[in-house]
Design goal:
Elements (H helix, E strand, L loop, with lengths): L21 H12 L3 E2 H4 L5 H8 L1 E6 L3 E2 L9 E2 L9 H12 L3 E6 L10 H14 L4 E5 L7 H8 L5 E3 L9 H4 L5 H14 L5 E7 L5 H13 L4 E6 L16 H14 L3 E5 L14 H20 L1
Parallel strand pairs: 2-5, 3-4, 5-6, 6-7, 7-8, 8-9, 9-10
Antiparallel strand pairs: 1-2
Helix pairs in contact: 1-3, 4-5, 5-6, 6-8, 9-10
Pfam family, one: LIAS_N
Protein name: Lipoyl synthase
Cofactor: [4Fe-4S] cluster
């Protein structure tokens, strides 16, 4: 366990296998050509090579690449946003179709400068993907949108397959880790989504290694379940730069296995827990067998139609 300001060397189990094959390079070039942002790159996700190259999943970051919040764990740039492109939903949908993605996560920087927190653009992105890539399941990962009920309703009217909002850390550490967002408001957003759409799976994620206790992690599980959250992910916090919060300690793989077992025993429908797990890790496995069958069947139909043209 490290002290504040003391740099901890990463353990062997955090080594990342890099795969820059043709699929990975093709997706990266497409992102640049379409002027799109991905949280995979902006937040320095350790799983980018696996998701892009092997699983045909990606996490698009809409509403620009400048966040209005300065959370102390996040590598995304903070400042005054200058970008609001209302044609972005169509570009995202075109890219999803070209890549034949089976599952897409749509997230965004926090846009507290917008009255609806970006909910309208989220909704239009969902609708555009539905039109152009009906075989693709869609997960959304918005900010708390300041807990505004109208913004939540605007987004949910577009009917995403999964609604994901991350609580990020335990209650005690929230003010230290997050900016503007609060623990209770995040729970409130997740509860409201379930009230509006009881059949839509909801999901949340926490990082560990910031100084929390096991008892506090278990309390987060209980609080999420009380808010009717279906899916939980638990991953290791990794310090993006020396300017960000220090890692207090690295959890061992067997500790993550134990946390997953606890989460499932408490009643979560699905839990991913591991050193490199992030909120969108293996997200395609969390939408259910019916959705995966829909993807495979519609892809096959589209390929047949293209051959017959």
């Amino acid at each position: 366990m490290g002290k504040q300001g003391e740099y901890l060397r990463k353990p062997d189990w955090l080594k990342i296998r890099i795969n820059t094959n043709q699929d990975f390079r093709g997706i990266k070039h497409l992102m640049r050509d379409e002027r799109l942002h991905t949280v995979c790159e902006e937040a320095k996700c350790p799983n980018i090579h696996e998701c892009w190259a092997a699983r045909r999943t990606a996490t698009f970051m809409i509403l620009g690449d400048i966040c209005t919040r300065g959370c102390r764990f996040c590598a995304v740039r903070t400042g005054r946003p200058t970008e609001l492109d209302l044609r972005e939903p169509e570009r995202v949908a075109d890219s999803v179709k070209k890549m034949q993605l089976r599952h897409v996560v749509v997230t965004a920087v926090a846009r507290d400068d917008l009255e609806d927190g970006g909910a309208y653009v989220f909704a239009e992105t969902i609708r555009a993907i539905r039109r152009k890539a009906p075989y693709c399941t869609i997960e959304v990962l918005p900010s708390d949108m300041k807990g505004d009920d109208g913004s939540i309703l605007t987004l949910m009217k577009a009917k995403p397959d999964i609604f994901d909002h991350n609580i990020e850390t335990v209650r005690r550490l929230t003010k230290k880790v997050r900016a503007i967002a609060t623990y209770d408001r995040s729970l409130g957003v997740l509860r409201r989504v379930k009230e509006l759409s009881p059949n839509t799976p909801t999901k949340s994620s926490i990082m560990v290694g910031l100084g929390e206790t096991k008892e506090e992690i278990i309390q987060v599980m209980d609080d999420l379940l009380a808010s009717h959250v279906d899916i939980m992910t638990i991953g290791q916090y990794l310090q993006p730069t020396r300017k960000h919060l220090d890692v207090v300690r690295y959890y061992r793989p067997e500790e993550f296995a134990e946390l997953k077992e606890i989460a499932l025993s408490k009643g979560f429908r699905h839990c991913e827990a591991g050193p490199l797990v992030r909120s969108s890790y293996h997200a395609d496995e969390q939408v259910g067998e019916d959705s995966r069958m829909r993807h495979d069947e519609l892809i096959e139909m589209e390929n047949r139609a293209s051959m017959n043209e």
